Every structure is written in C-alpha cells, then in structure tokens.
Amino acid sequence: SFSTVIHACIRANSPQRAARWLAEMVAVGEAPGGSCFSSVVQALARRGDLAAAQRWLREAVERGADVNKACFGAVISACLRAGDLEAADDLLRLAARGGGATGACI
C-alpha cells in the first residue's frame, strides 16, 4: 500500500521520496490518513525542507486529515530555527484554530 511505502521511505531517511509517494497517492485519488501526512511533514521539517513541510501540512489541513500536534510542532520549531517567525506564527494560529490536529493545543 502507499502508506507502507511512505513509511518505509521515512525509515530510510528519504523524506523527499516519501513526499513523492504521498503526491502519487493523492494524484490517484486515494485519501491519505493523518499518519501519512504527519510522517512526511515531520520528516521534511527535520530535513529542513520547510517549504515542502508547510505545503504538505496545509494540504493535510485542507483535506481534513487528522494530523497530530507533533506535526505542527515540528514545522513551527523548524520555522523558528530558520528565523521565519511569520511562518511560525501563521502555523501556530492555524493549529490554535483546530487545523485538523488531534489535540491542537501547542
């Protein structure tokens, strides 16, 4: 399944490949669960690919995926480390509004 491949890519420390599989999953009309989105977003944030991490986090929220608060926290922390306070603030506000996150209080 797509989720198995995505998680294998994450375990292999290949978040960009995992993101490509997530994109393929979406393209063929399968609905990724929150765990697929969260895994990819957090791995991209750890890698420092903030643009992709933010894009996938927003995609997850738009699709109503149940992403966890650790997902938001990982991207917000990465934004802060990169000095992008505006992006961190935007994501914090999104999380505070519920943003699809389980326990979205960050």
Task: Give a written overview of the molecule.
Helix content is 71%, strand content 0%. The protein has helices at residues 2-11, 15-27, 34-47, 50-62, 69-81, 85-96. The chain is mainly alpha-helical and 106 residues long. It is globular. The model has no long low-confidence stretch (mean pLDDT 90). It is built from six helices and no strands. Helix 3 (34-47) packs antiparallel against helix 4 and helix 3 packs parallel to helix 5.
Please give a handful of descriptors for the protein shown:
71% helix; 0% strand; 106 residues; 6 helices; mainly alpha; single chain
Can you describe this structure in just a few lines?
By secondary structure, the protein is mostly helical. It has six helices and no strands. The longest helix has 14 residues, at 34-47.
Report the helical percentage.
over 70%
Label the structural class: mainly alpha
> Strand fraction band?
under 5%
Could you tell me the number of beta strands? 0
What profile does the largest beta sheet have?
A: none
Helix-strand sequence: HHHHHH
Spans of at least 5 consecutive residues whose pLDDT stays below 50 are: none
How far apart lie the N and C ends? 32 Å
Query: What's the total helix number?
Result: 6
3D shape: globular
Average pLDDT reading: 90
Radius of gyration: 13 Å
